[in-house]
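Why do we bother with holo predictions? Because pocket geometry can differ from the apo form. Keep that in mind while you read this record for 6-hydroxymethylpterin-diphosphate.
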Amino acid sequence: MTTRRIHNWQCRDRTVVLGRRTLVMGILNVTPDSFSDGGNYSDPSAAVARALEMAAQGADIIDIGGESTRPGAQPVPIEEEIRRVVPVIEKIREQSDVLLSIDTMKAETAGRALEAGADIINDISAFETDPRMVDIAAETQAGVVLMHMKGSPQTMQSNPVYDSVVQEVGSYLDQRIRFAEQNGVRRECIVADPGIGFGKTSEHNLELLRGLPELAQCGCPVLVGASRKSFIGKVLDRENPSERRAGSLGAAAWAVQRGAHILRVHDVIDTCDVCRLVDTLLVGEHSCS
Ligand code: HH2
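The structure, written out:
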């Protein structure tokens, strides 16, 4: 049995309870080249409509990205990244108070997104890419997601090797949480993420999912982003990401049962149903123990 710890996640002036039920973070890539939804929401009005649709479907957070991080993706200039995401965040905020996170490694983009109404910085490089990112997080007291990645999106899939992937990812997350705290980010603002698919083979990703209870020992809430990723395609022999829905839901159920607090997903309705069911089972299990 996995007992999920309850946390109060501080995201600027909002306090979000994590652990009573699983939160669903809907993915919105305002990019031409993301691995699953690339090109679908490049048009700002389509992006805003999709965000509002996901919120209506039950998403607790919308994660907005203007730069694909799929293996081999090329970096996007900062002006272009800001041009893609900021107007979309402004428009969503005019119409909804759903939590918004900005998926970026660049401090200026994060700062502009927060000014436009975002609540959370999702930095897949855990404050390693841009030295100013940690200061923006500390100043704004935004929620932050610190993720493990081996290398960069350009290099990460060229033969990643670990002695023990769970131990290595766990101690990296501990170290980045310490770094954040030493630089003024409050622990209550931090969520940790093992970074499924970022510098990992399929076997590494499966080991990380098996090792989630150990990773949850970092003391911060845990976010898992397995949705439609290539290890699911490999296990199920599904080449096309849109065919990986059922596999993603299987991974979601597994992750919730093993302590994930937040799931980052493409398929919001189905994932919300899975979470409600597994959360209900877990509550029963805990109350009987
Ligand atoms: N995965 C992706 C992007 N951002 N952020 C967190 N915290 N965790 C993840 O697992 C994660 C993430 C990659 O997925 P996606 O955004 O769907 O694709 P792309 O990077 O091609 O835009």
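The mean pLDDT is 94.
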